[in-house]
Specification:
By secondary structure, the protein is an alpha/beta fold. It has a domain at 63-139: Nucleotidyltransferase, domain 5, CATH 3.30.420. 33% of the residues lie in helices and 15% in strands. It has helices spanning 19-35, 85-101, 118-130, and strands at 63-68, 75-77, 80-82, 107-112, 137-139. Strands 3-2-1-4-5 form a five-stranded mixed beta sheet, with helices on one face. Helix 3 links the parallel strand 4 and strand 5. The radius of gyration is 34 Å and the shape is elongated. The two termini are 61 Å apart.
Length: 143
């Protein structure tokens, strides 16, 4: 039972302790706010149709992307994967020869898994240096 002090007079107003009830109400309110489904607000954007016929696709034909994977003997050249260094080397050499015959200096972009062994990176750099390709860009992702 709720204890009442003895010195309280009959004219005083009796107020029970509401702390527990307010805690429960607050927890329920937070729960209901967090689980309520809200309608996402979307801004509709109408793209212009006037310049659509004049748009030109960006061509990066003089670009060679090389991917280094963390697995042994797995290499990437463009969208293709190779499981042998010799086959990869032949395909890379052919791609470079094709670009050089078209009077384009190839741009080489190297992207790799951060778990890729340093041995693969050094092997690729050594091959590029042996083929007189001194410029290569290494793609890195910020941590």
């Amino acid at each position: 039972m709720i204890g009442v002090k003895n010195n309280a007079s009959k004219s005083s107003f009796f107020v029970p302790d509401m702390t527990a009830l307010l805690d429960v109400i607050f927890i329920l309110l937070v729960f209901l706010l967090l689980t309520a489904n809200t309608v996402p607000k979307v801004l509709q954007v109408d793209l212009p149709q006037k310049g659509k016929s004049q748009a030109v696709a960006l061509e990066l034909s003089d670009q060679i992307s090389i991917t280094l994977f963390s697995e042994d003997n797995r290499w990437g050249l463009g969208n293709e994967e190779y499981v042998n260094w010799l086959v990869f080397e032949i395909a890379l050499n052919e791609k470079i020869r094709t670009l050089k015959s078209a009077q384009n200096e190839p741009q080489i972009i190297i992207a790799g898994d951060k778990q890729a062994p340093l041995e693969k990176v050094m092997q690729l750099f050594s091959w590029l240096q042996g083929n007189d390709l001194s410029v290569a860009q290494v793609m890195m992702s910020p941590e």
